[in-house]
Amino acid sequence: MTAKAFSGRSADTLDVDAVRRGEVGVDDLRIAPETLEHQAQVAETHANPQLAANFRRAAELAMLGDAEVLALYELLRPHRATVEQLLAIADDLQARGAVLVGELFREAAQVYARRGLST
Amino acid sequence: MTDAPVGRIRLMDAQPVNLDGFAVEDPSLGLVALASPQDPRASIVVSDGRVVELDGKPEAEFDFVDEFIARHGIDVAVAEEAMALTDVAVARMLVSPDVPRAEVVRLVAGMTPAKVTQVLAMLRPMELGMAMTKLRARRTPSNQAHVTNRLDDPLLLAADAATAVAYGFREIETTVPVLGDAPSNAVAVTIGAAVGSPGVLVQCSVEEAMELEMGMRGLVSYAETISLYGTEQVFIDGDDTPWSKAFLASAYASRGIKMRVSSGAGAEVLMGGAEGCSMLYLEARCVSLARAIGAQGVQNGGIDGASVAASVPRGVRELMCENVMVMMRNLESCSGNDALMSESDVRRTSRTLPILLAGSDFITSGFGSIQRYDNMFGPSNWNAEDFDDYLAMQRDWGVDGGLRTATAEDVAALRRRAAEAVAAVYRFFGLADFTEEQVELAVDAAGSKDLGETDTLAILHAGRTIRESGMTIVDVVQALLETGFEVEAERVMAMMRARVDGDYLQTAAIYDEQMNVLSLVTDPNDYAGPGTGYEPSPARQAEIDAIRQQRSVEELRQEQATRASDRLRVVGPAAAGFDPREVVIGVSAAVGRDIWVTLSGLLVVDAIAELLAGLEEEGCTARLVRVNATLDLGLVGLTAARLSGSGIGIGMQGKGTALIHRRDLSPLANLELYSVAPVVDASLYRLMGVNAARHAKGATPVPVRNPYTDEAIEARYHTKVVSLVAMEREHVDPLAGPELLELLP
Predict the structure, then answer these.
(1) CB contact at 8 A, B521 and B507
(2) pLDDT tens digit string along B254-276?
(3) What kind and span of H or E run contains B104?
(4) Please, which residues have CB within 8 angstroms of residue B336's CB and are 6 or more apart in sequence?
(5) How high is the ipTM of this complex?
(6) Are strands B171-175 and B201-205 parallel, antiparallel or unpaired?
(7) Which among B202, B459, B601, B632 would be 20 to 30 A from B435, CA to CA?
């Protein structure tokens, strides 16, 4: 299978000539959400549903920009956000289609509240 | 009376192993390997598809590690079936070739951390080896290298990365002594690896957020130092939670970057947070968590805490249990053996050997491919100093530990190209202007101490510029193209295409040199007993076998020929002599034909000259004969004695072994013998001549004693002996009489 990059460009056209022509942008080197879904299915058939779940969360994060991904990670670290903030992020992510990542934030909010890890 | 120990104890005290720390087992501090009284007994209660009790703890008391494992890490569909099996039944399933890996994986998915702990604690060392052979994810073993240096010198990093690849490593991990240098190191190692081969994965281990950022820009292709811990408190001290780590795992995957987590015994002990539990149980929690967050693999087996584990009874065994645990959970194992765990070469070998023999996805999670002092992770259990040892161990056992021999010419050429490529790219970007001389020094350097003065501020500046300018891998490819490094540019692009394909996100993925993915999916381990599973291909076996030190008889013959002398001349057939002051020196059949140098490095003609000089000193006359009819030194000497007017003869083989014989003795009963030829020097041959003369005159000389040695004398010389004896045999003719020789001045 030849995958398409995030930009929609076919991976097998990503060669040095394309770089030389100045045609290759950052989005041409990003993995596409559809590819991650495909990898999730492969992981599932190889007895690792957790890896599949990871790839499906990744498919959602693939839609977000680098800065936002880094910022979201920072907020999930201990004592960075209030429970309300975490829940608000969960709502926002889910409203934007990142259902599984939103769920991760929602679950973290609950556990952080119980274990005293929110601010 | 003195309190000082006796000499035998002082001798032992002085051995390197006694620099190691050994701890009394102390469960309260977590200084216990396989089982602690504080470890919970395995249990699970599933209610309506939800885990409500885990290892004796009800849901309301779950800490966040329990919570994440309970919610995501247990296959509730098989939990009751799996947990109902006795520990010994599971232990046997791990070892038995008759139980397929898939069945083990299915059941272990439903097991709790305490269950896995109890099972693994039952396995004896060789059983762990069997389990590892069967359970690792990838069929083909591989290995990972550390490439770092004290100065973060990019030329040396690139040269050393190319060298590591030449020796067969398929993953390279770098890190920095100075955080700001990290982007520069990532670029230098990526270029160096591309010089070495297509398909090498590169990581730069730094703080989590910065590492991810470099990954996003394509400057590295995998990540490994996403640390997990076995207790909630230590996790928080590490500034993360299972949820933030799960997010991080997805973040890496979202950019097509391979990722594994890192854990291992001793981390919690060192941070004072073991909560009285055994190392194995805490690690079982880490590995359950690794699977739960969706990591494809785990680097464990002690890692930074390896020497803590090794300080307690059964600690090294615990380290191997950790790796097997990862494999049971259907994850990639990057099997530790990185941090140097002992000052003793014996102990550090003992720690690694079972894993090398069993085979792992990565035998080490960081073979220090540079010298110990340049390893910015700290010295590894295996280092540049040990390449030849490791290659010999692979060859000894006929196993694939991921390394191969590189020729001196290839290493030199690759190092030059790598250093030149980095110099060109840094010049292209205006990052640094390296001189020809700096390139030369990096090519030749065995380590950063050989580089002379370097400008560390320039490297920091380069790192900062790469980071702040937003440089990506596309820019690096552009620079490689502009400066004429097309092949490397294409190899870097191939890794970018790989990232878009995503196939190397699957468990235990590496690329071979043809850019084929080898993983759990494409190259699954199919071991099911003898005759199955991974076997090196004939080409790979040849690589393993052909270490650079091996020599054939023909090569040794050619070496001998380069020292040939024209001082020996055949006079004619040898007859018996009658002069009572005459001693005959008999040399073996290949002397003067194929053999010219003794094992001690002395020319055979010089050894003969010394014998002659010793005889002359004592007023004896001498004749030199070549005994052609026999290989046996005793018979060579006896033949000489029987030709001798005095009845005393000296026998000498080409390799230098020599004896004094007398005509009335049986072949094996000689008067004096130099049996250890490698240590017989010119003065000893002189002495043998003197003593032979004294025997001839009827005196009783003080026998010369063989010099003693503590060298592995047989290891050093036996292969040569085999070749030299083969050459002697080629010239033996049972019907040929002895010949009189003349030693010309």
Answers:
(1) yes
(2) 999 999 999 999 888 998 889 99
(3) helix B101-108
(4) B264, B299, B300, B301, B302, B303, B306, B319, B322, B323, B364, B365
(5) 0.98
(6) parallel
(7) B202
Decide if B334 contacts B144 (C-beta within 8 A). yes
Give the tens place of pLDDT for each residue, A94-110: 999 999 999 999 999 99
The encoded tokens of residue B94 equal: 């791990």
Helices assigned H by DSSP within B167-207? 182-196
* Nearest residue in chain B measured CA to CA from A67: B213
User: B604-617 and B682-696 are packed helices; what angle lies between their axes, rounded to 10 degrees?
Assistant: 40
Spell out a b/e string for A19-35, using b for 16 or more CB atoms within 10 Å of the CB, else e. beeeebebebbbbbbeb
| Distance in angstroms (rounded) separating the CA atoms of residues B77 and B288 | 16
Scan residues 52-111 of A and list those with Cβ closer than 8 Å to B: 52-55, 57-62, 64, 66, 69-70, 72-74, 76-78, 101, 104-105, 107-108, 111
**Distance (Å) from the alpha carbon of A55 to chain B's nearest alpha carbon:** 6
Q: Is the pLDDT of residue B39 over 60?
A: yes
> Residue B693 has which token pair?
């003369």
In our burial notation (b when 16+ CB lie closer than 10 A, e otherwise), range B391-428 reads bebbbeeebbbbbbbbeeeebeebbbbbbbbbbbbbeb
Task: State pLDDT tens for residues B496-541.
Answer: 999 999 999 999 999 999 999 999 999 999 999 999 999 999 999 9
Tokens 């250093």 correspond to B419
**B294: contact with A, CB 8 A cutoff:** yes
Suggest the residue from A29, A30, A74 to mutate for an interface test with chain B (most B CBs closer than 10 A).
A29
